[in-house]
Design brief:
Blueprint lengths: L4 E2 L3 E8 L8 E7 L2 E6 L3 E6 L3 E7 L4 E7 L5 E8 L8 E15 L3 E11 L10 E8 L5 E7 L3 E8 L4 E8 L6 H4 L3 E7 L2 E7 L4 E5 L6 E6 L8 E3 L5 E4 L4 E5 L2 E6 L4 E8 L2 E7 L6 E7 L4 E8 L2 E7 L2 E6 L3 E7 L2 H10 L3 H10 L4 H17 L3 H10 L6 H10 L3 H13 L5 H14 L2 H9 L5 H4 L2 H10 L3 H10 L3 H12 L2 H10 L2 H18 L1 H13 L4 H4 L3 H5 L16 H14 L6 H13 L31 H29 L12 H10 L3 H10 L3 H10 L3 H11 L9 H11 L6 H14 L4 H8 L8 H44 L20 E3 L5 E3 H4 L10 H18 L2 H10 L3 H10 L10 H11 L5
Parallel strand pairs: 1-26
Antiparallel strand pairs: 2-29, 3-4, 4-5, 5-6, 7-8, 8-9, 9-10, 11-12, 12-13, 13-14, 15-16, 16-17, 17-18, 19-20, 20-21, 21-22, 23-24, 24-25, 25-26, 27-28, 28-29, 30-31
Helix pairs in contact: 2-3, 3-4, 4-5, 5-7, 6-7, 7-8, 8-11, 9-12, 11-12, 12-13, 13-15, 14-15, 15-16, 16-19, 19-20, 20-21, 20-22, 21-23, 22-23, 23-24, 24-25, 24-26, 26-27, 27-29, 32-33
Length: about 950
C-alpha cells in the first residue's frame, strides 16, 4: 500500500452537523430515493434530504431502531427494532414496513408514514437471539426476501408479500459452536445472476455461500477463515468483500479471489463507481483513515484522516461519512478533466491513460490523452514510442496531424508503420494509400510491398483504395504488384490494361478473359477488343464466339436454347472493335449466323453483313483514312508489297479482289432472299437500308429482288430501263404485268411509253407489247398512237395490223350499239303510245273472274288499269295497287331509290371511274340511269364539287 501513489481525485463537497432534530444516537442508516434515513437508539427514524437537511422524523419503534433499509423499487422503509411490552417482559424485536408515500396525521404539527405491516421476528420455531446483520432483497414486487443474521450462527429468512403477510419463514444454519463469538453472523451479501440467487454469509471462522434458487437452500464453504468484524461489502460485479486486519479479500461463487494487503483494522468497507472505500484504524498513529483505492490502476485516489466514523453510505453521487459526534463529511469525485490536468502537470501520462481506460471513458477522450502523451514523447525525440501512442489514436485523431510531424522529421520508417496501421483498420484514404506505396518504393522494400499487396489474408479493397494502389504501382514500374491488386479486387479492366498497354502480353490477356464469367468477359472485350483484334485476331474472334454462343453452358442452364441465347451478349455489341478490320468482322458474323439461327439481334446482324457483302472494298465508310494506304488498300489486311515484279503482283491482287467482290455480292443476294422468306411480311433486315446499300454499290440484282418483294413493279422496270435491257424488260413485264396472277397491267403502258420516247428502232419490241395491250385492252388506240408518234424511228407498219384489228372491233361494237339503240327507241315509242292511250281513251274491263280467287266476278269489284280485276273482299284494305303487278313495280322503285342513293356518294363514282378500263363508259352508264342528269342541287352539286378536284383521275 505504501508503494501506491496518492492522488487527490476526490474533494470535500461540504461538511457539517446532523440536524438537531436527530436527538438519539445513530445506530443504523440507509439511502435511496434521493434521501438518507437514520435510525436512532430512541426508536426514531429521521429522513434527510439533499445536503443532509432534515425533512421529517417519526417514532418507528418505542425502544430503539436496530436496522433499517430503504427499498429501491418502492418507496417503502423496512425497519427492525425493539418495542416495549408489559413491564414484566423484555422488549420484543419486531419488523415493520412503512409506506413513505402515505402519511397518517398525528396531531397538528407532525405526521408519520403509514405502517402497513408489523411482524415478530422470533417465534416458538425461531428462538430469540441477538441480531448481528440484516439485509433485504427486492425480488419481483411485492415480493421481498429478508435475511437476519444471528449471533448463534443461524440466519432467519422471511420471504413473500410481507405487506399482506403472505410469507414463508425458514432458517439457514451456518455454524453451531458453543462459543457464540465464533459462530456469529458478521456479514451478509446477495448475489443475483439472472434467475440465480445466492447469499454470502460470513462468520469469524468461515465464508459460506447459500444457493437460494434450489428448493432447499444448500450451503458451501468458500473459505475456512472469516471475519470477526462487520466490515463487508459488495462490488458492482457481485463480488463479496471482507476486511481483515492483514488484508482485504474478494470472494466469488467459486471461492476466494484477489487479495489486497492493506494493513490496519477495517471498520467500514464500501464500493463506489469502481473504487474501493475503506475506513481503517492506523495502528502506528492510532488515527482513523479514510482511503479511496483505484485497484485497477494501483493508486490511492483519496486519503483523509477522520474521527471515529459511525456510518458510511453513498447517495447523490457522493460518499457520506457520519461521525460519532454527528458531524458529517461529504466527499465527491472530481471530473475527468481535472484529474487528467493534475496528471499532465506531473507528466504522468501512463497513469492518465490507465485512468481513462479503467473508468471506461469514451474513445475520443482516451485518444486525446494518448495524443498528448505522443506529443510529449515526440518533444523528447523518442519517435518510436511516440508513434506507438499515435497509432492507438487512429480513428479519432486526424491522420494528417501525425503524418505532418513525421514528414517534417523525415522519419519514413515510423511514417510507414503508421500508414500500415491506418490501412489495417480500413481508415485510409486514397492519399494515404499513395503515400504508403511511395514510402515502400522509396525504401525499395519489395518484401513489405509484397506483404501489403499479395498477402493471402489480403488487405483487400476495404483496407485501401484499389485504384490508387494500382496507379502508384504502375507509375513506379511495379506492374506485377499492380496486376496482383487488380486481380484480387476483381478490377479486370485494370488487370487487362496493364497486360496490354504496359506489358504487351496479349496471349496471357486472352487466357485471363477466357477465365472470367460471361458478363465480365463481355465488358473487358468491349474495352480492349481493338488491341486484341490488332495482335491476336483469330483468338479474339474465338473468345467472341464463346461469349455470344456459349454452347458448353447450355446443358448447365437447364433452359431452352432460345431463352439462353437471349441472355447472351449480342455480336452487335462488339462491332466497334472491328472498325479497322472488316475481314475479321465478316468471318465472325458468318460463323455466328451459321451457329445461331434465332438471335434477337438478327436484323442488326443481317444489316451489317449486307453492308460488308455489298461494299466494293470490304470497308466501312467511317474507317479512318490514316489506316489506308495511298492505293486505297488496307495494309493490315493485304500482303506486303513486293520489291520486284510489282506490276504482276498488283494485277494478281486486282483479279483476286474482283473475284472476292463477286463472291460477296452473291452471298449478299443469297442473304437478301433467305432472310425474306415468303411466309414473312417483313424481312429479317432493314429494307430501306438494304435498298440504299444496293443503290450505293450499284447492285442491280438486289434492287430487283427487293422491289419485286415490295411490289414496287414500276421501280423494277425502271431498273431495266436504266440499263436498256429490252429483253429483260419485256420478260419482267410478262411476269409482273399479268393481272390474272396479281400483276400490274399498267406496266405495259409504261413500257410502251418508254419505247415511244426511246428514239431508236424497236419495232419488234413494240409489236410484242401491243399484243399484250390488245389482249388485256389496257390502252385506247388513240393513246397508243399518241405515245408511239413520239419515236421518229417507228413506221406506221408497226401498228398497222393493231389499228386494223382495233378498228374492226370498234366497228362491231358500234353496230351492236346501233342495234340496241334502235331496239330501245322502238320500246320507248310503244310505251309512249300506251301512256297516251291510257290518258285519252276509255278502258273496257271484260274479265268475268276474279284474278285472285278465280271465282265469278260480282259486285262490289275493283278494276285496275293493268286489266286485272278483283273482288273487293279479296283485296282487303289494299285497294290502291294491284297485287299481281305490285312486286314488279316495287322492284323498279327500289332500283330507282338505290340509284338515287348512290348518286349521293361521289367517292364511289370516282372509284369506279379509276378502276375501270374505260372511264367514259362509267360516266355514260350514270347518265343513262338518270343519276347525273338530275337538276336538283343535292347529288349533282356534290358530284360537281368533287369533279374539280378529281378531274385528273378520269
Amino acid at each position: 500500500m505504501y508503494q501506491w501513489r496518492k492522488f487527490e481525485f476526490f474533494e470535500e463537497k461540504f461538511s457539517g452537523k446532523v440536524a438537531d432534530d436527530v436527538t438519539g444516537k445513530i445506530q443504523c442508516c440507509s439511502s435511496g430515493k434521493g434521501r438518507i434515513v437514520l435510525g436512532c437508539d430512541d426508536g426514531t427514524a429521521s429522513l434527510l434530504d439533499r445536503g443532509l437537511k432534515f425533512n421529517y422524523g417519526f417514532q418507528a419503534h418505542s425502544s430503539s431502531v436496530l436496522f433499517l433499509q430503504q427499498l429501491k423499487q418502492r418507496n417503502f422503509l423496512v425497519t427492525v427494532g425493539e418495542d416495549e411490552q408489559i413491564a414484566s417482559q423484555p422488549p420484543a424485536v419486531c419488523l415493520k414496513i412503512f409506506d413513505l408515500d402515505k402519511m397518517e396525521p398525528e396531531g397538528t404539527s407532525t405526521s408519520i408514514p403509514d405502517c402497513i405491516q408489523i411482524l415478530r421476528i422470533f417465534t416458538n420455531q425461531f428462538p430469540e437471539a441477538k441480531i448481528t446483520s440484516f439485509l433485504v432483497l427486492e425480488e419481483a414486487p411485492p415480493l421481498l426476501l429478508i435475511v437476519i443474521g444471528l449471533e448463534n450462527g443461524s440466519i432467519y429468512c422471511i420471504q413473500g408479500d410481507i405487506a399482506r403477510e403472505r410469507i414463508k419463514r425458514f432458517k439457514l444454519q451456518v455454524d453451531n459452536h458453543s462459543d457464540k463469538s465464533q459462530s456469529s453472523i458478521t456479514g451478509l451479501g446477495f448475489r443475483v445472476d439472472g434467475q440465480v440467487l445466492q447469499l454470502f454469509a460470513v462468520t469469524p471462522n468461515t465464508v459460506n455461500l447459500f444457493n437460494m434458487h434450489t428448493q432447499t437452500p444448500t450451503r458451501q464453504t468458500l473459505d475456512q477463515i472469516g471475519s470477526s468484524v462487520t466490515s463487508v461489502g459488495m462490488t458492482d460485479r457481485s463480488e463479496f468483500i471482507i476486511g481483515r486486519p492483514e488484508a482485504i479479500y474478494f470472494y466469488e461463487v467459486d471461492g476466494r479471489g484477489p487479495c489486497w494487503a492493506f494493513e490496519g483494522e477495517k471498520k467500514f468497507l464500501g464500493w463506489f463507481r469502481g473504487y474501493l472505500l475503506c475506513v481503517f484504524a492506523d495502528q502506528r498513529t492510532g488515527k482513523n483513515t479514510f482511503n479511496v483505492y483505484d485497484l485497477k490502476n494501483r493508486l490511492i485516489a483519496h486519503s483523509i484522516v477522520v474521527k471515529e466514523v459511525s456510518q458510511m453510505l453513498c447517495e447523490w453521487g457522493n460518499i457520506i461519512l457520519i461521525l460519532e459526534d454527528k458531524s458529517t463529511l461529504c466527499i465527491g469525485e472530481k471530473d475527468m478533466e481535472s484529474k487528467l490536468d493534475m496528471l499532465f502537470k506531473k507528466n504522468l501520462y501512463t497513469v492518465a491513460i490507465n485512468l481513462v481506460q479503467s473508468q471506461q471513458a469514451d474513445a475520443a477522450a482516451t485518444a486525446e490523452v494518448l495524443r498528448k502523451y505522443g506529443d510529449h514523447l515526440y518533444g523528447k525525440q523518442d519517435f518510436d514510442e511516440a508513434m506507438a501512442q499515435y497509432i492507438h489514436t487512429i480513428g479519432h485523431l486526424e491522420p494528417s496531424y501525425v503524418i505532418q510531424k513525421f514528414l517534417d522529421a523525415q522519419r519514413i520508417h515510423n511514417l510507414t508503420n503508421y500508414l500500415e496501421k491506418l490501412h489495417e483498420k480500413g481508415l485510409a484514404s486514397k492519399d494515404h494509400t499513395t503515400l504508403l506505396l511511395n514510402c515502400y518504393t522509396k525504401l525499395k522494400d519489395v518484401e513489405k510491398l509484397n506483404e501489403f499487396i499479395k498477402s493471402e489474408d489480403g488487405v483487400g479493397e476495404q483496407k485501401f483504395d484499389v485504384e490508387t494502389a494500382i496507379r502508384v504501382c504502375r507509375a513506379s514500374n511495379y506492374h506485377e504488384h499492380a496486376m496482383s491488386v487488380a486481380k484480387k479486387a476483381g478490377r479486370h479492366e485494370w488487370y487487362l490494361k496493364i497486360l496490354l498497354e504496359d506489358l504487351g502480353r496479349y496471349e496471357e490477356a486472352l487466357q485471363y478473359i477466357n477465365s472470367l464469367e460471361l458478363s465480365q468477359a463481355g465488358v473487358t472485350v468491349k474495352e480492349y477488343g481493338k488491341i486484341l483484334i490488332e495482335h491476336k485476331p483469330a483468338e479474339t474472334a474465338d473468345i467472341l464466339m464463346r461469349l455470344c454462343t456459349e454452347e458448353s453452358e447450355l446443358p448447365k442452364k437447364g433452359a431452352s436454347s432460345g431463352a439462353f441465347i437471349s441472355m447472351l451478349p449480342s455480336p452487335i455489341d462488339f462491332l466497334n472493335i472491328f472498325v479497322h478490320y472488316p475481314h475479321a468482322l465478316l468471318e465472325f458474323l458468318e460463323k455466328y449466323t451459321s451457329k445461331v439461327k434465332d438471335s434477337s439481334a438478327q436484323v442488326e446482324i443481317h444489316n451489317t453483313l449486307l453492308e460488308l457483302y455489298l461494299s466494293h472494298d470490304l470497308d466501312f465508310p467511317s474507317i479512318s483514312q490514316s489506316n489506308i494506304d495511298e492505293g486505297g488498300n488496307d495494309p493490315a489486311l493485304r500482303p506486303s508489297k513486293a520489291v520486284s515484279n510489282g506490276k504482276m503482283i498488283s494485277d494478281k491482287k486486282d483479279v483476286n479482289d474482283e473475284k472476292g467482290h463477286q463472291e460477296r455480292r452473291q452471298k449478299g443476294l443469297t442473304l437478301l432472299k433467305s432472310a425474306w422468306p415468303s411466309e414473312l411480311e417483313q424481312p429479317l433486315y432493314d429494307v430501306d437500308l438494304a435498298i440504299i446499300l444496293c443503290e450505293m454499290n450499284d447492285f442491280k440484282e438486289g434492287l430487283l429482288f427487293l422491289y419485286e418483294k415490295m411490289k414496287l413493279y414500276k421501280e423494277v422496270i425502271a431498273c431495266y430501263m436504266q440499263v436498256h435491257d429490252h429483253e429483260g424488260l419485256i420478260a419482267c413485264c410478262k411476269r409482273l404485268g399479268d393481272s390474272g396472277k396479281g400483276g400490274d397491267p399498267s406496266l405495259w403502258a409504261d413500257l410502251l411509253k418508254y419505247f415511244g420516247e426511246l428514239g431508236e428502232d424497236c419495232s419488234k419490241e413494240v409489236k410484242e407489247i401491243l399484243t399484250y395491250i390488245e389482249r388485256d385492252d389496257i390502252l385506247p388506240p388513240i393513246v397508243v398512237l399518241q405515245t408511239l408518234a413520239k419515236n421518229p424511228c417507228l413506221s406506221l407498219s408497226v401498228i398497222k395490223d393493231y389499228i386494223a384489228r382495233k378498228l374492226e372491233h370498234e366497228s362491231q361494237l358500234i353496230e351492236e350499239d346501233r342495234r340496241a339503240m334502235e331496239k330501245y327507241q322502238e320500246e320507248s315509242s310503244t310505251m309512249r303510245k300506251e301512256i297516251q292511250d291510257l290518258r285519252t281513251n276509255a278502258r273496257i274491263f271484260q274479265l268475268s273472274k276474279c284474278t285472285a280467287c278465280t271465282f265469278t266476278l260480282d259486285l262490289p269489284a275493283v278494276h285496275f288499269m293493268c286489266m286485272h280485276s278483283f273482288h273487293q273482299h279479296c283485296l282487303g284494305d289494299n285497294e290502291k295497287e294491284c297485287p299481281e303487278c305490285a312486286p314488279e313495280y316495287r322492284a323498279v322503285l327500289e332500283t330507282k331509290r338505290s340509284l338515287e342513293q348512290s348518286s349521293k356518294n361521289p367517292d364511289q363514282f370516282f372509284q369506279l371511274v379509276k378502276s375501270s378500263k374505260d372511264g367514259f363508259s362509267v360516266i355514260a352508264d350514270y347518265f343513262g340511269k338518270g343519276i347525273i342528269s338530275k337538276t336538283s342541287n343535292g347529288p349533282t352539286e356534290a358530284l360537281r364539287s368533287n369533279s374539280a378536284s378529281s378531274a385528273n383521275d378520269f
